[in-house]
Amino acid sequence: MLKKLFGFDATQHNLRTEIFAGITTFLTMAYILAVNPSIFSALEPQGMPTSSVFTATILAAVVGTLAMAVYAKKPFGLAPGMGINAFFVFGVCLGMGHSWQFALTAVFIEGLIFIFLSFFKIRELVANSIPSGIKAAIGCGIGLFIAFIGLQNCGIIVANPNTQVSLANFNTPSVHLALIGIVICGFMVVRKIPGGLLWGILLTSIIGIPMGVTHWEKIVSTPPSIAPIFMQFEWSQIFSWDMLIVVFTFLFVDFFDTVGTVIGVSMKANMVDKDGKVHGVGHMLMADAIATTAGACLGTSTTTTYVESIAGVAVGGRTGVTAFVIVICFLLSLFFSPLFLAIPAAATGPVLVIVGVIMISNTTSVNWDDYSEAIPAFITLFMMPLSYSISDGIMLGTIMYVLMKLSKGKEGIRQITPTVWVLFVIFIIRYIQKSL
Predict the structure, then answer these.
(1) Which of 11, 38, 186, 316 is the most exposed place for a label (fewest CB within 10 A)?
(2) Tens of pLDDT, residues 358-371
């Protein structure tokens, strides 16, 4: 039965190892239960309850990881993605001024498109058309962006009328706690402690109790209802230019984040053939697409495969049993909403900073010696935090890529794929439209 459901073969796999791997992966990615509601709390004044987002986060993780366990039979965990959730809140809703219902509609459309692209195996084809330097820069830019948001949420970076931003005066308990949290989370990562980011959040929160920053009333309760955010779509603007840009940005960022994670973790698990092709990659991408669509219905941002899955793979997880154990852990966490929702921003902000460090490591993949690659990559990653917009970083970087390649003459022109030409034209039109 385990073989039919999860691809578990008793002659090749160890059940105890698979269970331990699932628990390990859950511990490494469970920080999302505190961080995702914390990010979405900025939308509470617009009628999106943070408590409902907590439940939606768990249910989206359950649906996505269950699809990975049963359909793809792989040991990967899924949950609402870091970075793309920041774009949802701070880019689409607070930056562009759209409602969270508009953003959920964009995520839902993205999921449907992903299902289509995965079914016809187009995602693999498109992945090979985008310049590697731009792809690497996107992850780096998102890392800088969410680290910036984390420092703001902590109160370490504040507004300044003269310099736009500056360091805060380190004279408040919440800032003190945030600085302690960064050190703790950094220690956990340096020591490679399983679930280090989650333990960092919890330890920082506990330290915040005597400091008067953390306020816990209870730990266990019935799960908050998702009724206020369930199936809350806004169809009136689905043919608008903003919807096109937002959907494409969700697609673009999630596309390469997922493909990169699946390939990287699969290679770590040795789930590739002699030619380096990933076994069952189509099923994994389809599970990811289903998760995104279901997550939008439940009321949260794009659900994606977590690179933290490599933690479970590293201890021996190889089948869907590992993913199923992750599902059980997420379901159990439904009843601990007061614990996670009481965690202060001073405890979750440090995690965003550390995740930013992890994401920016891809800068080594950029060819900094070739300025036709380096300049577009730099524009992409640098403009994301400065413009407070992931989409603007991608668009400006892509435009610069084409212009820099054109400056090289015939050699550079040959490096521009048809897909990039199409994106270049779309983005130019977008900025012309914004200037009118």
Answers:
(1) 11
(2) 878 778 888 999 99
